[in-house]
Design brief:
By secondary structure, the chain is mostly helical. The chain has helices at about 5-25, 30-45, 50-55, 60-85, 95-115, 135-155, 165-195, 200-240, 240-250, 260-265, 270-285, 290-305, 310-330, 350-365, 365-375. The N and C termini lie far apart (about 80 Å).
C-alpha cells in the first residue's frame, strides 16, 4: 500500500547522489558524506523487487540472495559509519568499525550454516517454521541499530568551528534520516519478538521517509548553489541594459570582445564579475563628461520628481550617466573631474552588484527617461 513512499525515497536518494557527485568527487571534505549516500542508496535498492529479481539470476537460490543482501548491508552500515566518522574527523575508529562488521558477518554465516534447511532468510511468522534462528536476527538488527544510531548522533553533533553552514545543516538532515533507520530496526526487533502483523506494514514507509530525509540533507548544498546561480543570472541580466549603453559609449573598457561561443565556456560568476568591472570602468571614464553645473541640474531634476530618499543617489547616478553619454556622443572634450561620481565602491562583490542593480533599475525609471528626453532638447550645461 505504501510501497510508493519507499520507491520515491530511494529514487530521491539516488538523484541527490547523482547531483552531488561532482562536488563529492572534487571536494575532500564532502567526499565521505557522498560515499555514504551512495552506499545507503545501493543497500536500499537491493531490497527492491526488480533488483532482487536480477540478483536472483546471479546468485544461486533465494536463500543465498537473502544472505548476500544481509552481508552486504553489514558492509554498507560499517562503511557509512566509517564515512561519517571521517566527515567528523574521527577516522581513527575505522579499525574498530570494520573489525566489528567482520565479526558480525562471520557470525551470521555460521548461524545460517548451522540452521535447519531453509529456502529463505526471512523472519518466519512462527518460530516453528524452519529458518535461521532468532539469534541471527538479533545480531543482524543490533549491529544496524548500533551503527545507525551512532551515525545519527555523530551527524547531529557535527558543528565544529569552520564547518560550512550548509554542510552542517545537510549533515543534520542526513542524521535525522539515519535515526529514522534506527527506528526501523527497533520496529523489526519488536516484530521479531512479537511476530505481530502490526509492525510489518510500517517497514516500507519508514524506509521511504528515511531515504527522503537523507536525500534532502545531501541535496541542500546543491539547492543553495542553484539558488545562488539563479540570483547571479538575474543580476547579470538585470545589469545588461545599463552595461549595453555604457560599453557602447566606452568600448575600450570591454575586457574582451563579445564572443557567444567563448561566453558559454566562462562560468556565470566570472561573467558577472567582469560585467561589474566594465560598468565601473565605464563610469570612471564617463564622469569626466559631467561638469558641476550638469550635476546640479541632475540633482534638481531628481529632487523635483520626489524620488524616495534611499533611491536618490541611484537616480542621480543614472541621470548623470545619461548626460555623460550624450556629451561624449556630441563630441565634447572630457575634463578632469574632482568629484568622485563613481563612488568609493563597496566592501564586497555582493554589495557592489546590489548597488549597480539599483542604478540599472533607476536607469530604466520614468525619472531617468524624462531626463533623457530633456537632453534631446538641450545640450548639457557647461
Amino acid at each position: 500500500m505504501f510501497t510508493w513512499i519507499e520507491d520515491a525515497g530511494i529514487a530521491a536518494l539516488w538523484a541527490a547522489a547523482v547531483v552531488r557527485a561532482p562536488q563529492g568527487v572534487r571536494h575532500r571534505e564532502q567526499r565521505p558524506l557522498w560515499f555514504a549516500v551512495v552506499m545507503i542508496a545501493l543497500a536500499m535498492s537491493l531490497h527492491l523487487e526488480p533488483v532482487t529479481a536480477v540478483l536472483g539470476r546471479v546468485v544461486p537460490g533465494p536463500h543465498w540472495v537473502d544472505l548476500t543482501k544481509h552481508l552486504f548491508s553489514i558492509v554498507d552500515a560499517a562503511a557509512v559509519l566509517w564515512f561519517i566518522f571521517g566527515a567528523a574527523g574521527r577516522r581513527r575508529h575505522g579499525g574498530v568499525v570494520f573489525g566489528a562488521a567482520a565479526v558480525v558477518m562471520v557470525t551470521l554465516v555460521l548461524l545460517d550454516l548451522g540452521a535447519p534447511a531453509h529456502s529463505r532468510n526471512r523472519i518466519a511468522p512462527s518460530p516453528d517454521v524452519p529458518g535461521v534462528p532468532d539469534t541471527y536476527w538479533w545480531v543482524f538488527f543490533a549491529f544496524h541499530l548500533a551503527a545507525d544510531t551512532t551515525c545519527g548522533f555523530v551527524c547531529w553533533s557535527y558543528g565544529r568551528t569552520g564547518t560550512p553552514r550548509l554542510l552542517r545543516y545537510g549533515l543534520r538532515l542526513f542524521g535525522t534520516g539515519i535515526l529514522l533507520a534506527s527506528l526501523l530496526w527497533v520496529l523489526k526487533l519488536f516484530y521479531l519478538h512479537t511476530r505481530s502483523s502490526v509492525f510489518a506494514p510500517l517497514f516500507s514507509p519508514v524506509t521511504g521517509v528515511e531515504a527522503a530525509f537523507m536525500a534532502v540533507g545531501v541535496a541542500l548544498p546543491a539547492a543553495a548553489r542553484l539558488r545562488a546561480h539563479l540570483a547571479d543570472r538575474r543580476s547579470y541580466h538585470g545589469l545588461d541594459p545599463l552595461w549595453q549603453d555604457l560599453t557602447a559609449a566606452t568600448p575600450d573598457v570591454v575586457l574582451r570582445p563579445g564572443n557567444r561561443l567563448g561566453t558559454v565556456a566562462v562560468p556565470l560568476q566570472l561573467l558577472l564579475y567582469r560585467r561589474v568591472i566594465e560598468i565601473r570602468d565605464a563610469m570612471i571614464v564617463l564622469r569626466n563628461y559631467v561638469p558641476p553645473a550638469t550635476l546640479g541640474v541632475v540633482r534638481r531634476h531628481v529632487r523635483d520628481r520626489a524620488v524616495p530618499e534611499p533611491l536618490v543617489e541611484a537616480h542621480v547616478t543614472a541621470c548623470w550617466l545619461m548626460a555623460a553619454i550624450h556629451a561624449r556622443r556630441a563630441g565634447e572634450e572630457p575634463r578632469a573631474q574632482t568629484a568622485d561620481l563613481a563612488g568609493a565602491g563597496a566592501d564586497d562583490l555582493a554589495e557592489e552588484i546590489n548597488g549597480l542593480l539599483r542604478v540599472a533599475s533607476a536607469y530604466r525609471s520614468p525619472t531617468a527617461r524624462a531626463y533623457r528626453d530633456s537632453l534631446v532638447e538641450r545640450r548639457p550645461v557647461s
